[in-house]
Amino acid sequence: MAVELAPLTQRPAWQALESHYQKMRDVHLRTLFDDDANRGERMALDAVGIYLDYSKNRVTNETLQLLQNLATSSNLRDRIDAMFRGDKINTTEKRAVLHIALRAPKGESIIVDGEDVVPQVHAVLDKMANFSNRVRSGEWKGYTGKRIRNIINIGIGGSDLGPHMAYNALKYYSDRNLTVRFVSNIDGNEFVECTRDLDPAETLFIVSSKTFTTLETLTNAHSARDWLVSALGSEDAVAKHFVAVSTNAAEVKKFGIDTANMFEFWDWVGGRYSYDSAIGLSLMIAIGPEQFYEMLAGFHEMDEHFRTAPFEQNLPVLLGLLGIWYNDFFGAETVAVLPYDYYLDQLTPYLQQLDMESDGKHVD
User: Are residues 149 and 231 in the same domain?
Assistant: First the structure.
């Protein structure tokens, strides 16, 4: 039987951090470096291809140990294991939290409600790969017989920010014969600008909406439908120029999309974590299935690092603990994300949603 924990701020580990903060609050970073010539090398980690230098934070060895004590006393290891088991750790919606299943290799097993979800994930990935290869090779043709050269993803929130960020980040690896764009703004001017120089006969729309009733997404999808039908002269063109990422087959069919070209995803994945699911179809078409699978393998490496690495060597855990140190003790309300790489220009809005929505939609 699980032992009920005391409220966070009443635990000894938290109170030890409060006392420690009183000693650290006025300590300057320059002082920390002056007192420790090896700080830059010592407070750095290299794991799964990522180098993390955390020496420029207002922490000492004692700070880090106290933060790790807080994680241990809060049963963080048990909570990580529960997530990987498929336990319903999303207590508000009573759901599993299994974005990790989206990149689990074939042969692994993750059980949700008595069913192994890994084969379901790979069935959708295989379907995505088959479709992507048909588009990239020119086998899939539009209504007039022209090959597809333009891909427009229509979504909002996680159905837009994730694939948009990843496409820009991986653009170097994309097929430059394809034009890939993203529409999310309910203001129709964005759709007009995205399509003004495109040939409807060569354009494929991916409409991403789990329920296929999302107001902003469906407004843009109907604008796209009207644009296409007006140009090509027939409602029959819709089935050759639209596919859906959804679970609502009835609404997808009513729109005019062939449900054979509907790619599903699951309620145990939050939208902000979903671009490595069917939500990433536009990305897979752009970079190709082989590169997409390489990306998934990188995700899985980090998942395994998070699951197994001791807290003092665990990149995500350390960053999370530093966030608690600054937010709850220093009262910091802002995080600066400064990507210096041109290809990461969409990383900041992606992380903004990823982080803030994880705090709950009621948090401003």
Answer: yes
